[in-house]
Amino acid sequence: MDPTSLHVAETIGVTPMTWRTEYDLQLEIERALTAAGIPATREVHLGEGIGRIDLMAGRVGIEVKVGSTSTWADVTRQLGRYAWSDDIDELVLVTTTAKHRQVPGKVAGVPVRRVFLLEAGL
Length: 122
Prior knowledge:
Blueprint: H1 5-14, H2 22-35, E1 41-45, E2 52-57, E3 60-65, H3 72-83, E4 90-95, E5 106-107, E6 110-116
Parallel strand pairs: 3-4, 4-6
Antiparallel strand pairs: 1-2, 2-3, 5-6
């Protein structure tokens, strides 16, 4: 059975993580999901014009933002591109940026769960 965005988000949210960079946090998330029995793949290309998402766990796409200068509107547009992929049923946004709280719970018809982590991993 494929994992749901709720299971993915809960696993990430309850796992203590330390990081310095977005790359570090992506690795920590991959390890946490794998330890929970949720296979995850990093840097997945979703197709021409859609782009590459940070991680996939089944049909759940996971986008990670650390100390991002991207506005919530920028992130929403990015998630909207991912939502067009036939490989994605749900999205999880993992962010350390409070301004991303405005990202909606659904983008282009695809549910989005948000996981907010502290600004500093270490």
